[in-house]
Amino acid sequence: MNAYTQQYQQNQILSASPEQILIMLYDGAIRFTRQAIAGVEAGDKLKKFEGTRRAMAIIAEFANTLDHEIGGDIAQNLDALYAFMTRELTTANLNNDIARYRVVESLLTGLRSTWVEAIEIRRSESAATAQVESNNAYSAQAAPEAYRPLSASG
Prior knowledge:
This protein has helices at residues 3-14, 18-42, 45-64, 68-95, 98-139. It is mainly alpha-helical. The N and C termini lie far apart (74 Å).
């Protein structure tokens, strides 16, 4: 990777919203899980190990950043799911078990889709709220005293 590509990627990360970073991390975990699968298929132990290690690091970060006080049951369930994925990756790595890697890949892909959908819903709701607030601010402005709407003139 050349210096310009590295700088571009660094700028993407530094200018990304927290939601975009979350999706980038899911993309990375999926990519590294697929790298591990490719390593098993090619008999490349280093590629398998690096893919597994990097996917596990991202999953561990997901688990470490859960807020159990705010997240409640959802955080607890995600924590259990992340622990399951870590165990699956460990076993897959030890046994060259592509099926276990595929389970983790499927879970990560599903979670990524869910987060994308949740982010879109949140954006839509925020945009709708902003529009209502804007309309309320406009309608709260006082009309001139002599103003009469056309529908009121008779």
